[in-house]
């Protein structure tokens, strides 16, 4: 039997053994289904609320830099600083660069699976016809042979099972996933900075009103003390007035602490140490109101825009490709090996003679029996793909839930602000009347204290709700997947 026939027979035997060792695995699961085919409602349940938010007279709709709708230069500056210097964003961007490098490496392996091994060797040898021959003896002198040879070795794996292609797909899916993660971090950072800044301005507003309430009650306390000293009021009224003043004063410290915490948090978001923004943010500023329309997106548009949906889809694509990699282990692999030697040989003073030696061979690799390890790896890969698919489906529903909840919260906050605004007006008139009647001796001081407490609480509640509404607007943009 010739050498070629022997190699062919061995290869055929190995393929037969491979076929007997395992049943051909099923096809790789489809991971290319786009978001457009995913189940989603045609409209949000609260679509009418979103439509109302999009109707802002002569103001236009918010764009990618949605925070500019607050028309606050300091907020714009804070978000810009954070997008440029936030370390979480920097880490996500570095992960994207890593994923691109891994994809390039995988793609290179798919298109150029060649290993090059080159070496240069040179030698000089003395060969004599006899051990006693003199260099000058006729016909029997030493022969000096000089050789210079370059050897090139090539190994070319033949990817019959498509393993490398699946590895490239997995690397590409991983790149899409980390890119989606970067977009998610950008949205998260801009939203968190906006919300923290809005809370800071809201707390400044509440702190100002609280100090005004303390001043007002201190004036009331002065009146009560004067009436007590004149014998017109009992000492009990004085003690009640003092208690009311100090109770309000005790609420100042927590608000001051919250303000300082917000300043520190905003500095950290911009990659700075606490204290950097103190001079910028200590001056009291108004709580900005949002003045642009919010795009009335449909559920499908939101699903296409949300980076967490893109992330979940990419993770499923990666898991599906890894199933293909596991399936490729069931098939044999073939390595084509070539060796070329190019050089020259010179004898004494004779001209150099060229040498070309080439060889080609193949190596067939196949696992005949592995105790079920490949089956286990394939089952595990399929299970991971099932997990990724379930996660993807759940994300689709969680996204619509985020939008629905954000819209309902905005609607509830709007109604609550309307009611609290009326309560502030009513409680203020009640307090003014009670104070006037008390000075005339027509009502007790307890009535005054109670009216004053209700008025202060109503003002604080309205300010809190206005702050909450502003932060809910920022949350809605995050829910809609609007990226800066």
Q: Describe it for me?
A:
The protein has 12 helices and 4 strands, in the order ααααββααααααββαα. The chain is an alpha+beta fold. It has a single domain, classed as Outer membrane efflux proteins (OEP). It has a 4-stranded antiparallel sheet with strand order 1-2-3-4, with no helix packed on it. The two termini are 73 Å apart. The N terminus is likely disordered.
Q: Helical amount among residues, as a percent range?
A: 55-70%
The CATH class designation is Mainly Alpha
* Stretches with pLDDT under 50, minimum 5 residues: 1-25, 31-36, 110-121, 130-140
Average pLDDT works out at: 82
Strand residue content: 5-15%
Question: What integer value in Å does the Rg equal?
Answer: 40 Å
Largest sheet strand order: 1-2-3-4
Q: Gap between N and C termini, in Å? A: 73 Å
CATH topology: Outer membrane efflux proteins (OEP)
What structural class is derived from the secondary structure elements?
A: alpha+beta
Task: Quickly give the CATH architecture.
Answer: Up-down Bundle
Largest sheet: 4 strands, antiparallel
SS summary, helix count: 12
The secondary-structure element order is HHHHEEHHHHHHEEHH
DSSP strand count: 4
Q: Can you tell me the overall shape?
A: elongated
């Amino acid at each position: 039997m010739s050498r070629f026939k022997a190699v062919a027979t061995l290869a055929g035997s190995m393929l037969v053994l491979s076929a007997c060792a395992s049943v051909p695995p099923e096809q790789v699961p489809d991971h290319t289904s786009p978001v457009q085919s995913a189940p989603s409602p045609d409209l949000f349940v609260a679509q009418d609320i979103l439509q109302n938010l999009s109707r802002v007279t002569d103001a236009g709709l918010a764009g990618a830099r949605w925070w500019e709708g607050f028309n606050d230069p300091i907020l714009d500056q804070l978000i810009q600083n954070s997008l440029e210097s936030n370390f979480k964003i920097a880490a996500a961007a570095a992960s994207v660069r890593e994923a691109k490098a891994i994809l390039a490496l995988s793609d290179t392996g798919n298109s150029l699976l060649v290993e090059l091994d080159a070496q240069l060797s040179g030698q000089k040898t003395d060969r004599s016809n006899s051990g006693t021959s003199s260099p000058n003896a006729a016909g029997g002198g030493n022969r000096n042979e000089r050789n210079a040879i370059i050897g090139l070795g090539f190994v070319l794996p033949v990817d019959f099972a498509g393993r490398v292609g699946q590895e490239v797909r997995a690397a590409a899916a991983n790149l899409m996933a980390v890119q989606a993660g970067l977009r998610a971090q950008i949205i998260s950072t801009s939203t968190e900075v906006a919300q923290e800044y809005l809370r800071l301005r809201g707390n400044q507003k509440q702190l100002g009103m609280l100090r005004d309430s303390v001043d007002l009650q201190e004036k009331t306390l002065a009146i009560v003390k004067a009436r007590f000293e004149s014998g017109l009021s009992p000492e009990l009224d004085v003690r009640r007035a003092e208690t009311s003043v100090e109770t309000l004063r005790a609420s100042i410290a927590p608000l001051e602490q919250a303000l300082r915490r917000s300043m520190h948090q905003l500095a950290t978001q911009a990659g700075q140490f606490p204290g950097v923004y103190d001079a910028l943010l200590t001056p009291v500023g108004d709580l900005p109101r949002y003045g642009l329309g919010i795009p009335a997106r449909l559920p499908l548009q939101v699903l296409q825009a949300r980076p967490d949906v893109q992330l979940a889809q990419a993770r499923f694509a990666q898991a599906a490709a890894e199933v293909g990699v596991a399936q490729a282990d069931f098939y044999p692999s073939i390595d084509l090996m070539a060796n070329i030697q190019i050089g020259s040989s010179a004898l004494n003073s004779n001209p150099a003679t060229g040498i070309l030696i080439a060889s080609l061979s193949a190596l067939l690799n196949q696992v005949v029996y592995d105790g079920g390890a490949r089956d286990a790896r394939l089952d595990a890969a399929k299970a991971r793909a099932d997990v990724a698919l379930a996660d993807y489906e759940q994300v689709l529903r969680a996204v619509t839930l985020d939008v629905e909840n954000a819209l309902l919260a905005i609607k509830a906050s709007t109604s609550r602000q309307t009611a609290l605004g009326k309560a502030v007006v009513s409680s203020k008139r009640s307090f003014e009347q009670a104070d006037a009647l008390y000075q005339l001796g027509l009502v007790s001081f307890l009535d005054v204290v109670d009216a004053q407490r209700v008025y202060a609480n109503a003002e604080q509640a309205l300010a809190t709700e206005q702050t909450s509404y502003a932060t809910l607007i920022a949350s809605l943009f995050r829910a809609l997947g609007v990226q800066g």
